[in-house]
Design brief:
Helix content: 55-70%
Shape: globular
Structural class: mainly alpha
Largest sheet: 4 strands, antiparallel
Length: about 450
């Protein structure tokens, strides 16, 4: 049995077997499990498994950090070991009542923010590709690096520009489809609603004395409209006779939702998106060191609570409004502080297992994937997590003061983000990165920590 299959088998045992699984999925770095009975979980055992860097619980979901790429492999291996594949097993009435009671007392915003994040998470690969291609184009356009490449190969740069900008050309459609999927509507209808809001023909229509603006409100307007569409579609499905529901439901849903969208929701989305873009830009431009320090220093606590998911539309709005994102480089310094803290712990600890965890997590931490370091190293030790946040705050303050920006929305951080930084700011970003590492190291060294026994 290979390491992945062995880890999958051990996780299944630790969560109480496949019959205890209610839902199984993964993100980029985590195995995410919802179970019928929490009492059957052996959390201590799960935390100590080789290959598991950390554990965190959000709402009803138990999350095991196993690393980038590994998460999908482990989940696939778990499903292969399960006799029912992805089948969700039934639970008895007592366990179902217990699960419902727990769900009733969730944090008020946890489900909403998780749904919001689920709209955008599937788009991360497209954002990463787009940002890196745009960064490559910026390098190829610089005569001090590649000479007269741009003048010799204009067609190649043109093709690359199409590759890099394609995701933004269909952004609203993708968001519309994903929103419909998350909120239980028809995927095609979600795309249609987004298409209505983006149609160039809107510019030819005057309403209340003003010409309509195609694409106004960006993804915020799309979210509002498609959520309404899903609600209307479900209501109509419940009241329309089955024989005509297939025909009348999409017709009425389109007419009702489209009308409300044009008259009210798109203008409202426009006001919200403009407030977000202008407010975030104003805070960064005028806040300088202080705003950068606060944003970066408090970002990891937001990650622990799940509230950081609400920032995803802000990143998208900034790029749609300005063509660049000044927020992402600041927030990325939060993870950089973890790198410095982890290096300090590696030099001071005598715990062999902790050293092994750090050595395995540091390479991906340098690449911007900080969860193994956070949940496997700094957070369990306490003081190093605070020190890492302080180190990130120092880096974030400098990045904000220098007005460093990236061309990508989200999905990349750490060293790879340097490839997407706007021209003229790359060295400043790398300098901020280095300072955050040093600051995280020094704060951890000064604050110290209780070295765990073997």
């Amino acid at each position: 049995m290979d390491k992945t299959a062995a880890l999958a088998s051990d996780i299944l045992l630790g969560i109480g077997g496949e019959n205890n699984i209610q839902r199984l999925e993964n993100c980029m770095t985590r195995v995410r499990v919802e179970v019928h009975n929490d009492d059957k979980l052996d959390v201590t055992r799960l935390k100590q498994l080789p290959g598991v860097s950390g554990y965190v619980k959000q709402g009803q979901q138990h999350q095991l950090i196993v690393g980038p790429g590994k998460a999908a492999q482990v989940v696939d291996a778990m499903r292969a070991l399960m006799t029912g594949g992805e089948t969700v097993h039934a639970v008895d009435d007592a366990e179902r009542t217990k699960a419902q009671a727990k769900a009733r007392y969730k944090a008020p915003m946890s489900d909403a923010l998780r749904q919001l994040a689920n709209v955008f998470i599937p788009l991360i690969p497209a954002f990463i590709a787009s940002g890196l291609i745009t960064g490559i184009i910026n390098i190829l356009k610089r005569p001090d690096i590649v000479g007269d490449f741009a003048t010799q190969y204009p067609n190649l740069l043109g093709i690359l520009a199409i590759f890099g900008s394609a995701v933004f050309a269909i952004m609203n459609i993708l968001v519309g489809v994903n929103t419909a999927k998350v909120f239980g509507g028809s995927l095609a209808m979600g795309g249609v609603m987004a298409g209505i809001l983006s149609s160039p023909q809107l510019a030819q229509i005057t309403l209340f004395g003003e010409a309509l603006q195609p694409g106004r409100g960006g993804v915020i307007a799309v979210l509002l409209v498609v959520i309404l569409m899903c609600w209307i579609e479900k209501k109509l499905r419940a009241v329309l006779p089955g024989s005509i529901e297939l025909i009348l439901n999409p017709l009425l849903t389109t007419l009702i939702t489209g009308s409300v969208a044009i008259v009210a929701l798109q203008p409202l989305g426009g006001l919200i998106s403009e407030a977000i873009a202008h407010g975030a830009s104003l805070a960064i431009d005028r806040g300088g060191l202080l705003v950068g320090a606060v944003l970066s220093g408090t970002f990891l606590p937001l990650v622990l609570t799940g509230l950081h998911q609400g920032m995803v539309p802000i990143h998208v709005e900034l790029v749609q409004a300005h063509g660049y994102n000044a927020l992402l480089p600041i927030l990325s310094m939060a993870g950089v502080g973890q790198v410095g803290a982890a290096i300090a712990i590696l030099m001071k600890t005598r715990n062999a297992r902790l050293k092994k965890v750090i050595k395995g997590a540091l390479p991906v931490g340098l690449l911007g994937i900080g969860e193994p370091l956070i949940f496997g190293v700094t957070l369990p030790l306490g003081k190093p997590f605070l020190a890492a946040c302080l180190g990130g705050a120092v880096g974030g303050a400098l990045i904000s003061y220098w007005k460093v920006a990236t061309v990508i929305t989200f999905g990349i951080s750490g060293l790879p983000l340097a490839l997407t930084i706007v021209t003229g700011k790359v060295m400043l970003y790398l300098l901020g990165y280095l300072v955050a590492v040093i600051a995280g190291f020094l704060f951890t060294w000064l604050l110290g920590f209780n070295d765990p026994e073997e």
